[in-house]
Amino acid sequence: MLSAVFGGIGISALYAGLGRGRMSVVAPVTGLIAAGLPVVVGIALEGTPQAGVLGGIGLALVAVVLVSRVADEGGGRSGLGFGLLAGTAIGTFNITIAQVSDGLVLGPLATMRATQAILVLAAIVLWRGPWRLRPGFVPAIVLIGLLDMGGNAFYIAATQSGQLAIAATLSSLYPVVTVILAAVLLRERIGPAHAAGIVLAALAIVLIASGSS
Question: Looking at residue 71, what DSSP letter applies?
């Protein structure tokens, strides 16, 4: 339930920051803190990984920042506060959801989603914001929900079979997949920073995998 609260706060702050602030500030700050915080806590609780793994973690953190960068939108509020809040909340979510008892995956996920559903319903009632969806959006949203649940389930399983620092680092590389899919499916151009981030992410995965075997 605590993970559900932090997850809801983190995602809400991220989208608020992207909508009201500068994406070139909010996205990298969120990504770096969300990835780095579980690494620090994991090392404190479970010990320091091997040198090669540590090097891979460092490269991965740099990769997250690079692939999260977007073009600067000019003036206006930076949204740094939203980025700090989003990164801290998402990072804390990754820490708390990893603390469930070994062997439990679906039960914690069901509890988390039920809690978030209650929070969303409460927000709709309190703020009376628009919430109805166009019928055409429903299949895509169902698919998104299934993918999100699958990602969380695999993350929990990863933390139970290995170190939190490693699981959190590898899962934080999801922006790399987003950039690649955007290039393949939407024909978006991969800029130099994104390309460098993808290369660093690949090197990080190799270092972490070889050091963890």
Answer: -
- 20 phi and psi, to 5 degrees? -110, -20
pTM of the model: 0.82
Instruction: Please state the domain extents for the chain.
Output: 2-212
26-52 pLDDT, tens per residue? 888 898 999 899 999 999 988 888 889
Q: Which two tokens stand for residue 98?
A: 């990893």
The upper half-sphere exposure of residue 173, i.e. CA atoms within 13 Å in the direction of its Cβ, equals: 24
Q: Answer whether 70's CB lies under 8 Å from 24's CB.
A: yes
Give whole-number Cα distances, 142 to 63, 138, 148, 202, in Å. Answer: 30, 6, 10, 30
The secondary structure of residue 173, as a DSSP letter, is: T
pLDDT in tens, 157-184: 999 988 899 999 999 898 888 889 888 9
The DSSP call for residue 102 is T
Pair 9, 85: CB distance under 8 Å: yes
CA dist., res. 77 & res. 25, Å (int): 10
In angstroms, the Cα distances linking 125 to 1, 105, 110, 138, 141 are 20, 31, 23, 21, 22
How much is the average pLDDT of 203-207? 92
